[in-house]
Amino acid sequence: MLLLSHFRYQGSWRHASAGRMFPFVDQMLDFLHLERTLIRIYVVSALLLLAILLLFYVLQRVVIFMQRYATNVKHLRCFPEPPRRNWLLGHLGMLLLPKKMSCSMAFSSHGWAKWHKAASGGTVCLDMFEHISLMTLDSLLRCTFSYSSDCQEKPSEYISAIYELSALVMKRELFLPHHFDLIYRFSADGRRFQKACTIVHDFTGGVVQQRREALTKLGADAWLKSKKGKTTDFIDILLLSKDADGNGLSDEDLRAEVDTFMFEGHDTTASGLSWILYNLAQHPEYQQKCREEIKELMTGKEVEEFDWDDLSQLPFTTMCIKESLRLHPPVTTITRCCTEDLKLPDGKVIPKGITCLISIYGTHHNPTIWPEPEVYNPYRFDPENYQQRSSHAFVPFSAGPRNCIGQNFAMAEMKVVLALTLLRFLVKPDETKTVRRKPELILRAEGGLWLILEALESTQ
Fold first, then answer.
1. Residue ranges of the binding site for heme
2. Is the N or C terminus of the chain more exposed, i.e. has fewer CB atoms within 10 Å?
3. pLDDT for 227-255, tens place per residue?
4. How far is 135 from 264, CA to CA, in rounded Å?
């Protein structure tokens, strides 16, 4: 009896001491409607201890983040802050002021045929963004996949998915809670985004797999011989690429490269072309000079004979394109992370680890570099004037090792489309509509960029 009483006493003491370990143990057991036993007391105590440790860890991370943030703010306090436009968005509203050849020939013919048909009555007013975006997308599909989409004539699930992804990315940027992946994944927009991604990835994955199987079956040499006389497309180049150890790209790497080329390529080029036509419509004297330069180059040639060598023989047209890219850069901002402390000429320091927002639009409109920056003046890019400026004063495709991978393709495409468009049409501004820049992933115009096209009789 004494021994039994001793054990009961010891058990009740452990009971009580365990309950006293954490004041909330009893309340937790009562809340869960559980009987007080030694095991349950220790389990609940362990869970409470774990929760407290987790809370301390979170608080520690918050304090560290705030300390780093305060340090960065202190370092960056020497930089002037632009005036705020919105109590929540800060100065984001200040980003903008208020105010391959055979492929290109193939894709453009569809668009020009549509425009000629629409302008059969004399003139037609079109939204350049809508039409040229389809043209550039068709071009990329032909050059990247050797895939004839006919997206200018009929709808495509793949095309629709690409457009939806572009819209959803911009929409997500403007809604703060959707910046968190967990919240976005379970939102309606997040589900639409995943569905669109699946469509795009399935398409590119299927094309890559089909092309890889054909290459494996024939072998590289036989594959290249079978392509003789045809255009080698982007996927062919990637499939045949190997590193120093002789290893090729995986299917996932191939898909990522193709998707990046598609997403970054069609909308930016469409924006550039649309604004080029807009600027030439506003300045008919420059438009006519471009047209005369192109006609002189094409003397004695058919349109189908326009080739790569001709692109370097359009100096004034190239100057007009570059000035438009300066005045209306398709990509207005880029971000770069400082890998080391960066000391500026005036002594200010951008600390290591800071992600910097670099305004291409601001650089291109800096009056100390570009006098009268809002004036469209192609002669800024006369070779003599161009050599007097810094190589980083004009960066529509960014600069350095992470610049745009498709800039040569984009410039060639813009030259071809512009040249052949000016041979066929006279471009005029629509005076009934006000053009206002619209800040999105690329530089657009609110309500579209509407221009009047008049078919030239000599090209009908």
1. 404
2. N
3. 665 666 777 778 777 777 777 778 788 88
4. 15
